[in-house]
């Protein structure tokens, strides 16, 4: 390891605050071999400069080995062979070689091996962002890779190992556990007007992170009508066209009532865009200069862009069923027309028909999760500033500030995504919204078809689909899955500001405790109480010790940081 650090431009002569160098430490602790190496590295006995290693990464059926060879630079050093369980576990360290070491260094790997590594990280081999790799030879060096990665943000993430969920296999293994538990839930009933349901036992979950890492389990390729989830895009398109003027026509408060209740707020407006009345109103505001077919095409194409370019289909049988049972929707439309809430010359029959068409767009969990992840980043920013295939990618687009994580295409403005997620956080679960925010704590939107879309700020979008609904009109299995998700992982919105004993999958589980303890000790030594609060909010053991057995309290006392010591004791 000492050799490795020195080859990475580590400075053997650098002193700590007591004036000790690594060589001094090696001598004091009687580490003869290390001391001899450092002496030779700092002051070579021969006229040959310390070697710059040549590194080759080779994959074998039984193991993967990294070879570091002297390449005849200095006969006093032997070749080093480092065996690791999997080359991908070494990539985080190797990135420093890739980006900053002497150009004599050569790291070779195969295109096949790289694609396998990316697949393990949740990146599909068909991901269009990998098309640039076609320019690489079948076996390539780090120079080849850096030459195409320097101006490509996605490839730089690969290079640096900086995915949203670094240990994706461990993360998905836990998702499998949640899924199997939720699958045992057979409670709930199917919505009476859901024409297209064939099998009430269908259950699928899809996940898409900010970086486009995706995972699906169960019946994720089964198409279903988006139903109430359509209101998210209708509201977003109305915001794109009219900005905050949308809220001259619809409010932004939870109603505490059923979605289709014949009721308006104290200002005589629909309570929010995610109720049936609000969805009808937003539908009436979208491109009023176009006829019905063109307005519908605009909405479908928007869904396609938000879901990674995959165009959703249309469930005509579901549309006819919606129309047959649209009396309540027509009543809401005429109530709002009687109150003169619609823009002039609005045709209620056309608006309600358009609203039913939007509800009958058909999609899979995989695509909808891409949409969900589009909004993650912008919600995370504004939150701290102010306090199955289509479905998979749609949450991803929300999680990424309005930019589709797979294509890089901007679908919605950041301000639009902020408003959409704010409404989802307070109103997305209808009269269950308050309890959902308390227990699960992430923006979400439920649907009568059995779909449940959630957005974890700055991390991932998730879509669960199961037709059976609980008494709140939420997918019973989806509800179960999401509750397990935020109970196990520190993804509740307020987990960011309080101490919780939950996993953080954004950090390697095997090393995050050690890293947090090191940060805790450093902050304590500096007397940085605010940083201590932040670190402890991640459920770090306040009595955790470093390699010398020193705790944060040791460091605070040793550095005479009275305020930090008082904070740690109390």
Question: Summary?
Answer:
With 570 residues, the chain is an alpha+beta fold. Helix content is 44%, strand content 11%. The chain has helices spanning 2-7, 22-28, 32-42, 91-100, 111-120, 142-149, 153-160, 168-183, 230-242, 276-285, 292-306, 316-324, 327-338, 348-359, 365-373, 376-386, 389-399, 414-427, 433-439, 476-488, 512-526, 529-536, 552-558, 562-569, and strands at 54-59, 64-69, 80-84, 108-110, 139-141, 189-190, 204-209, 214-218, 224-225, 313-314, 361-363, 444-446, 451-456, 460-465, 468-469.
Name of the CATH first level of the largest domain: Alpha Beta
Question: How much beta, percentage-wise?
Answer: 5-15%
Please mark out the parts with pLDDT under 50 across 5 or more consecutive residues, or reply none.
Answer: 44-107, 377-391
Terminal-residue CA separation: 40 Å
**What is the share of helical residues?**
40-55%
Q: Could you explain the architecture of this structure?
A:
The chain has five domains: 2-42, no CATH class; 54-160, no CATH class; 176-225 and 366-495, Beta-lactamase (3-Layer(aba) Sandwich); 229-361, 3-Layer(aba) Sandwich (Beta-lactamase); 512-569, Serine Threonine Protein Phosphatase 5, Tetratricopeptide repeat (Alpha Horseshoe). Strand 1 (54-59) and strand 2 (64-69) form a beta hairpin. The model is unreliable at 44-107 and 377-391 (pLDDT under 50). The strands form five sheets. Strands 8-7-14-13-12 form a five-stranded antiparallel beta sheet, with helices on both faces. Strands 1-2-3 form a three-stranded antiparallel beta sheet, with no helix packed on it. The chain has helices at residues 2-7, 22-28, 32-42, 91-100, 111-120, 142-149, 153-160, 168-183, 230-242, 276-285, 292-306, 316-324, 327-338, 348-359, 365-373, 376-386, 389-399, 414-427, 433-439, 476-488, 512-526, 529-536, 552-558, 562-569, and strands at residues 54-59, 64-69, 80-84, 108-110, 139-141, 189-190, 204-209, 214-218, 224-225, 313-314, 361-363, 444-446, 451-456, 460-465, 468-469. The chain has 24 helices and 15 strands. The protein has 570 residues and is an alpha+beta fold. Helix content is 44%, strand content 11%. Helix 15 (365-373) packs parallel to helix 17 (389-399) and helix 16 (376-386) packs parallel to helix 17 (389-399).
């Amino acid at each position: 390891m000492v050799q490795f650090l020195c080859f990475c431009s580590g400075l053997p002569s650098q002193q700590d605050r007591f004036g000790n160098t690594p060589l001094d430490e090696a001598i004091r602790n009687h580490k003869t071999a290390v001391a001899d190496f450092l002496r030779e590295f700092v002051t070579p006995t021969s006229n040959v400069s310390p070697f710059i290693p040549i590194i080759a990464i080779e994959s074998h059926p039984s193991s993967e080995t990294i070879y570091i060879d002297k390449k005849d630079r200095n006969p006093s050093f032997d070749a080093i062979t480092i065996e690791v369980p999997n080359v991908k576990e070494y990539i985080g360290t190797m990135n420093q070689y890739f980006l900053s070491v002497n150009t004599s260094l050569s790291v070779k790997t195969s295109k096949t091996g790289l694609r396998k590594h990316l697949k393990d990280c949740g990146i599909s081999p068909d991901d269009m962002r990998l098309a640039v790799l076609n320019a690489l030879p079948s076996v390539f060096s780090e120079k080849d890779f850096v030459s195409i990665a320097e101006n490509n943000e996605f490839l730089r993430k690969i290079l640096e190992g900086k995915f949203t969920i670094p240990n994706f296999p461990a993360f998905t293994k836990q998702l499998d556990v949640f899924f199997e538990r939720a699958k045992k839930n057979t409670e709930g009933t199917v919505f009476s007007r859901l024409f297209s349901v064939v099998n009430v036992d269908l259950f699928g979950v899809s996940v898409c992170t900010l970086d486009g890492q995706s995972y699906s389990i169960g019946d994720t390729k089964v198409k279903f009508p988006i139903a109430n989830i359509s209101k998210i895009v209708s509201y977003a398109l109305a915001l794109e066209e009219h900005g905050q003027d949308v809220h001259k026509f619809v409010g932004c408060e939870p109603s505490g009532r059923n979605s289709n209740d014949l009721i308006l707020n104290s200002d005589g407006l629909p309570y929010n865009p995610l109720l049936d009345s609000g969805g009808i109103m937003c539908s009436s505001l979208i491109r009023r200069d176009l006829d019905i077919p063109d307005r519908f095409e605009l909405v479908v194409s928007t869904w396609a862009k938000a879901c990674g370019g995959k165009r959703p289909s249309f469930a005509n049988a579901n549309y006819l069923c919606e129309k047959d049972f649209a009396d309540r929707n027509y009543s809401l439309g005429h109530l709002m027309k009687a109150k003169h809430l619609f823009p002039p010359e609005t045709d209620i029959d056309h608006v309600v028909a358009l609203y039913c068409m939007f509800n009958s767009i058909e999609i899979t969990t995989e695509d909808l999760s891409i949409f969900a992840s589009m909004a993650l980043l912008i919600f995370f920013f504004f939150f701290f500033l102010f306090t199955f295939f289509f479905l998979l990618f749609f949450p991803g687009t929300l999680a990424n500030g309005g930019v589709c994580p797979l294509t890089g295409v901007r679908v919605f403005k950041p301000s639009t995504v902020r408003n959409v997620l704010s409404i989802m956080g307070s109103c997305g679960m209808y009269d269950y919204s308050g309890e959902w925010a308390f227990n699960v704590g992430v923006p979400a939107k439920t649907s009568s078809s059995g779909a449940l879309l959630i957005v974890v700020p700055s991390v991932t979008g998730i879509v669960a689909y199961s037709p059976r609904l609980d008494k709140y009109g939420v997918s019973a299995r989806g509800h179960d899955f999401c509750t397990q998700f935020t109970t196990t992982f520190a993804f509740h919105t307020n987990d960011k500001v309080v101490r919780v004993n939950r996993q953080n999958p954004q950090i390697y589980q095997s090393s995050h405790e050690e890293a947090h303890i090191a940060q805790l000790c450093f902050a304590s030594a500096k007397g940085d109480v605010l940083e201590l609060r932040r670190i402890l909010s991640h459920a770090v053991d306040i009595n955790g010790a470093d390699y010398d057995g020193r705790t944060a309290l040791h460091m605070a006392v040793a550095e005479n940081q009275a305020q930090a010591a008082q904070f740690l004791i109390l």
